[in-house]
Amino acid sequence: xxxxxxxxxxxxxxxxxxxxxxxxxxxxxxxxxxxxxxxxxxxxxxxxxxxxxxxxxxxxxxxxxxxxxxxxxxxxxxxxxxxxxxxxxxxxxxxxxxxxxxxxxxxxxxxxxxxxxxxxxxxxxxxxxxxxxxxxxxxxxxxxxxxxxxxxxxxxxxxxxxxxxxxxxxxxxxxxxxxxxxxxxxxxxxxxxxxxxxxxxxxxxxxxxxxxxxxxx
Length: 217
Description:
Elements: H1 3-6, H2 24-31, E1 57-61, H3 66-71, H4 78-89, E2 97-101, E3 108-109, E4 118-119, H5 124-129, H6 131-141, E5 145-149, H7 151-158, H8 164-167, E6 172-176, E7 179-186, H9 189-194, H10 198-216
Parallel strand pairs: 1-2, 1-5, 5-7
Antiparallel strand pairs: 3-4, 6-7
């Protein structure tokens, strides 16, 4: 086992794996070999961001899920399909956005061997370790607006004090990885799928995305 795998959790970082001044294609290729934290051990593959390097809108979620891990693309499972529908209803074209996650490997647990893989939330330190990839994506894409999907993405970008319920549906301006960014936080679409009142939760997501649409108008 490598010395990196034995490193304490606060020493995890993807920084040594991120090439300098690289475009998205080179970043995606390099990310496939990232060993910056232990999450790569059990995941099928790295799931890097997808979309145009010239996208005005960047969507940042938590981490890939089971289907994303298998297919190697972000937001292709049920939550991604719901997000696409909500974006379109809010007046935003999903095809025009760059989509990515704060953490690039699927973290999961199993009740028993060979049973279904159950999503497990990444820690803030794991998200921080993956931060150099997100910083590199931001530097290349240079979006006009970031939609922050859920608490994990918010804490990765804005720090541990972030609370999505306190700021969702508002336009924030913050220094992120050396750049002044505008951000609209909202819930992660997977939380809509888990909600007791799914329709009300969905309407709330659409309302937040409408704020983002107006901010880009």
